[in-house]
Write a structure and sequence with these properties.
There is one protein chain. This protein is of the alpha+beta class. It has helices spanning 4-32, 54-66, 106-119, 136-160, 179-206, 221-254, 257-271, 277-297, 300-322; strands spanning 36-45, 72-79, 93-102, 125-134, 215-217. It has a 5-stranded mixed sheet with strand order 2-3-1-4-5, with helices on both faces. α2 runs antiparallel to α3 and α4 crosses α6.
Length: 323
């Protein structure tokens, strides 16, 4: 029979963590309504009506562009060739679609293009690849987390001074390293996270995990610049407190170290809403390394620096594709 006090502690640890995540998502969704986004994808269609010429297909598809005034929508129709997926064959038609609009309009436009393709005489979708998906999702979630980040810092400061905001001790751990040591461990940890993610992602692709997954990119240079402070400072403060200093620390007091690490990392991954196995692998790897860094240092600063370092590497890697 499970101990009720133990279950209460477990529920409290997860409860506050997910409360913070949900609030960040709600705040982020408010900004997602007005943020622009970039969404590009390729769709192969089977040639349904071979009597209709490709020029006629192009003319009918182009009507979709005129139905959404104020939205940068471009659809390119190409004849399928030897590069088409095996399940489609060379008689397929390729639609390359690029949308630059507001976050909430994306699925509506996507569905409209598919309906238009069917009306234009194309058959079923036989293959699809999301090459680039919206970064406004990342920007909005990071914005929500960054709004809460200073609140978390204030709560930690109050707890350090003996206060109990909302009857919770927000800072009941003691670092194992000095401030200088935390900074050093943070930089080293960020480098290890980056290399570990690269290695795990490469291995996953090598063993057959699809690499045709959405890749987050900012829609514009200003959006990329806006992401820098949010992803390098705001999001790391929020996530490292919630998933390491709070959740991992408390789980580790009542569970074996490995179980606490796996559970807290799983929550970290789930909060990012991964859309593919490859994303799960990459996020889980990052979460494990950051969790191990917490166990070694018990320093929120070290984990924040490591997380910010890794996010900076990610942003630097996409910079040439945006500017």
């Amino acid at each position: 029979m499970l101990d009720k006090e133990w279950l209460k502690k477990l529920a409290g640890a997860f409860g506050l963590a997910w409360f913070c995540v949900v609030v960040a998502m709600i705040l982020g969704s408010l900004s997602a309504v007005v943020l622009p986004y970039k969404f590009e994808f390729s769709t192969y269609f089977v040639r349904g009506d071979t009597d209709i010429s490709l020029d006629e297909v192009r003319n009918r598809i182009s009507d979709s562009e005129r139905r959404y005034p104020g939205i940068d929508l471009a659809v390119t129709v190409l004849e399928g060739d030897a590069g088409a997926p095996s399940e489609c064959g060379t008689a397929s038609v390729l639609l390359n679609t690029s949308i630059h609009a507001r976050f909430w309009r994306g699925r509506d436009i996507d569905d409209a293009i598919i309906r238009r393709a069917h009306e234009a005489g194309l058959g079923a979708v036989c293959s699809r690849t999301s090459a680039i998906t919206s970064s406004s999702g990342t920007l909005s979630v990071s914005a929500g987390q960054s709004v809460i980040a200073p609140v978390i810092l204030v709560l930690i400061w109050r707890s350090r001074r003996g206060g109990r905001p909302f009857r919770v001790n927000w800072s009941d751990w003691s670092p194992n390293v000095s401030l200088r040591g935390a900074l050093s461990w943070g930089v080293a940890g960020g480098a290890v996270v980056s290399l570990a993610v690269l290695a795990s992602g490469s291995i996953a692709v090598a063993v057959g995990v699809s690499k045709d997954v959405p890749v987050l990119l900012p829609a514009t240079t200003p959006e990329l610049l806006a992401l820098v402070p949010l992803m390098v400072i705001g999001a790391p403060i929020f996530e490292e407190f919630v998933f390491r200093a709070w959740l991992l620390e408390r789980l580790g007091r009542d569970l074996p170290a490995w179980a606490a690490l796996v559970l807290s990392t799983g929550a970290f991954v789930a909060a990012h809403l991964p859309q593919s196995i490859l994303e799960w692998v990459v996020l889980f790897t990052a979460g494990l390394v950051l969790g191990l860094l917490w166990w070694r240092t018990r320093s929120l600063i070290a984990c924040i620096v490591a997380h910010g370092f890794y996010n900076a590497v990610v942003l630097a890697s996409v910079w040439p594709q945006v500017v």
